[in-house]
Amino acid sequence: MQTIRLTKEFKFEMAHALKGYDGMCRNIHGHSYELLVTVIGKPVADKTSVKLGMVMDFGDLKKLVRESIVDEFDHALVLSRDSADDFKPDAEMFGRTILVDYQPTSENMLIDFAARLINLMPIDVKLHHLLLRETVTSYAEWFAEDNKK
């Protein structure tokens, strides 16, 4: 059986600020993010399976990513926990604020997203690749093969 990669695309809006950064991104600003999630595996060969011929049902992949990443980060303000002392939010306007233990760069967000997803994959399906597009011309990528322990 051949090995196949499947990719599902997700879009979400998110704001962040980079504490201590030496440019404009130290200020709160937002992006229209695009997240591409690629898994790898072999299509199901069991003729009695309802998933015959699939590596993974696209709907199942969508559910996993939405529940573990998109639903949490969409329309949220993400700041490093180190920023908490500088941040005095009005409860209504900043109700979807997420404090993380890292500088919320695309690179670090990918590390977080990979950690959230890697153990949620079905048996015989592996997380292969993540691409997070921050702007039309800028993106970061994570590959499982680059991060083997």
Terminus-to-terminus distance: 27 Å
Helices and strands, in order, run as: EEHEEHEE
Number of domains: 1
Please name the CATH topology. Answer: Tetrahydropterin Synthase, Chain A
CATH architecture: 2-Layer Sandwich
Q: What Rg is obtained from the alpha carbons, in whole angstroms? A: 18 Å
Strands side by side in the biggest sheet:
4-3-1-2-5-6
Q: Assign the CATH class.
A: Alpha Beta
How many helices? 2
Rough shape? elongated
* Fraction in beta strands: 25-35%
Which class do the helix and strand fractions yield? alpha/beta
* Helix percentage: 10-25%
Give start-end ranges of low-pLDDT stretches. Answer: none
For this structure, what is the CATH homologous superfamily? 6-pyruvoyl tetrahydropterin synthase/QueD
Mean pLDDT figure = 94
Number of strands: 6
- How many strands, what sense, and barrel or not for the largest sheet? 6 strands, mixed
Question: In words, what does this structure look like?
Answer:
With 149 residues, the chain is of the alpha/beta class. The protein has a single domain, classed as Tetrahydropterin Synthase, Chain A. The protein is 19% helix and 35% strand. A six-stranded mixed beta sheet has the order 4-3-1-2-5-6. It is elongated and about 60 Å long. The two termini are 27 Å apart. The relative contact order is 0.20. The mean pLDDT is 94.
Layout: helices, strands, pairs:
Elements: E1 4-16, E2 29-41, H1 58-73, E3 76-80, E4 97-100, H2 106-118, E5 125-135, E6 138-143
Question: What features would you highlight for this structure?
Answer:
Tetrahydropterin Synthase, Chain A, alpha/beta, 149 residues, single chain
